[in-house]
């Protein structure tokens, strides 16, 4: 049985995963709103959530998509269709959109703690409400290795909808900043004083401009990573086409740069071109040699300096683990952050005992799962820090 408070908290978490700032007070307000509206009406739930949880115009589209995925309904589309046709469309559970299915959930309407029972009713008033439940929530947590072809296609589509935020860094370029306490902007100060008879009523100052940090993604395409490699390549493609200053490489027995191939807008075409470019697909792994090539040719003097570097690998290595240790130490000295994403980390009883993984782990800032869409959502948040 899911209470209204649990529904509100779950939806708030879904919004946060898309980058919408949702404070705890807003979730509490939404839970209170659910207690006074008809929760069987998707339209009422949609507008109540929008009023309580959205504070910025730029979050409206993310809110709508999150609502459609979490509740499996798009009531705003029905409202638009009803106004154009002059009649309201039916919202019966049989016409649930986007493959949503109907589940009968027992919702405690007294989740807020206030007594609302009928004095003549000896049983607590627990009302069964029909809510739309989207299978996307289950799919988000499903391991890529256990997904069918249809499920993987849906996951690839969802990857393209991820909000891709970048870590920021301050540059040397100065820009006007009203909140800064930096250097005095004499020209703007004098110009503004002309409005106050020559008296500098307010000092104008400079601040530092910011820009996105570079992002480097290295994907292990060896045989041990075969159940996850294609899904991770789709994730990397979404990052390449959704941001600037992104570089992508494939790691196997050698290093292959695949940024250009993944720059195609169509994800299936881009991934197919990238796979065709990799000569050692589903072969062995020499992490140390691949990292050395990256550091020597691309990383230390270029792409990795001040960048967020993400390595997506299970850590299995046929080479010398000491070489992995040396090259990871070199990489860590120049990168802003090093993140290691291991798809088998979520396996019960997992321990980083593989030689390559054990050698690399001391030089890693974040060690994350990478087996599901939910895990990749977490990775997106970590990359933006």
Description:
The protein folds into three domains: 4-134, no CATH class; 172-211, no CATH class; 213-383, von Willebrand factor, type A domain (Rossmann fold). Helix content is 42%, strand content 16%. It has helices at 4-17, 24-34, 42-53, 60-71, 75-85, 136-140, 149-159, 186-193, 226-242, 267-277, 287-303, 321-334, 355-360, 373-383, and strands spanning 101-108, 126-133, 168-176, 206-212, 215-220, 246-251, 255-257, 308-312, 337-342, 366-369. The chain has a six-stranded mixed beta sheet with strand order 7-6-5-8-9-10. Strand 5, helix 9 (226-242) and strand 6 (246-251) form a beta-alpha-beta unit. The two termini are 36 Å apart.
How is this fold's topology laid out?
Blueprint: H1 4-17, H2 24-34, H3 42-53, H4 60-71, H5 75-85, E1 101-108, E2 126-133, H6 136-140, H7 149-159, E3 168-176, H8 186-193, E4 206-212, E5 215-220, H9 226-242, E6 246-251, E7 255-257, H10 267-277, H11 287-303, E8 308-312, H12 321-334, E9 337-342, H13 355-360, E10 366-369, H14 373-383
Parallel strand pairs: 5-6, 5-8, 8-9, 9-10
Antiparallel strand pairs: 1-2, 3-4, 6-7
């Amino acid at each position: 049985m899911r209470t209204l408070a649990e529904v509100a908290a779950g939806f708030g978490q879904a919004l946060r995963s898309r980058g919408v700032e949702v404070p705890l007070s807003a979730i509490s307000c939404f839970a209170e709103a659910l207690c006074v509206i008809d929760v069987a009406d998707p339209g009422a739930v949609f507008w109540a959530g929008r009023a309580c949880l959205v504070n910025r115009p730029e979050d409206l589209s993310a809110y709508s998509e999150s609502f459609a995925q979490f509740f499996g309904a798009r009531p705003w589309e029905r409202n638009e269709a009803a106004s154009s046709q002059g009649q309201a469309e039916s919202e019966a559970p049989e016409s649930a959109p986007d493959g949503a299915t109907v589940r009968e959930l027992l919702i405690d309407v007294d989740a807020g703690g206030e007594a609302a029972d009928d004095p003549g009713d000896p049983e607590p008033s627990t009302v069964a409400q029909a809510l739309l439940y989207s299978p996307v929530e289950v799919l988000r947590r499903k391991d890529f290795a256990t997904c069918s072809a249809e499920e993987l296609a849906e996951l690839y589509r969802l990857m393209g909808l991820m909000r891709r935020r970048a870590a920021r860094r301050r540059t040397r370029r100065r820009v006007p900043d009203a909140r800064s306490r930096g250097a005095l902007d004499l020209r703007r100060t004098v110009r503004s004083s002309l409005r106050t008879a020559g008296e500098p009523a307010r000092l104008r100052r400079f601040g530092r401009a910011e820009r996105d940090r570079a992002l480097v993604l290295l994907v292990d395409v060896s045989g041990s990573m075969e159940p996850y490699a294609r899904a991770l390549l789709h994730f990397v493609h979404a990052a390449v086409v959704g941001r600037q200053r992104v570089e992508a490489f494939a790691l196997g027995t050698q290093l292959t740069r695949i940024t250009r191939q993944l720059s195609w807008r169509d994800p299936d075409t881009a991934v197919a071109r990238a796979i065709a470019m990799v000569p050692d697909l589903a072969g062995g792994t020499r992490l140390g040699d691949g990292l050395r090539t990256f550091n020597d040719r691309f990383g230390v003097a270029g792409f990795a300096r001040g960048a967020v570097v993400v390595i997506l690998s299970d850590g299995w290595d046929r080479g010398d683990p000491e070489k992995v240790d040396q090259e990871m130490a070199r990489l860590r000295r120049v990168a802003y952050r090093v993140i290691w994403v291991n798809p088998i980390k979520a396996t019960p009883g997992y321990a980083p005992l593989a030689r390559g993984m054990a050698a690399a782990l001391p030089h890693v800032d974040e060690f994350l799962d990478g087996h599901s869409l939910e895990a990749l959502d977490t990775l997106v948040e970590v990359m933006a820090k």
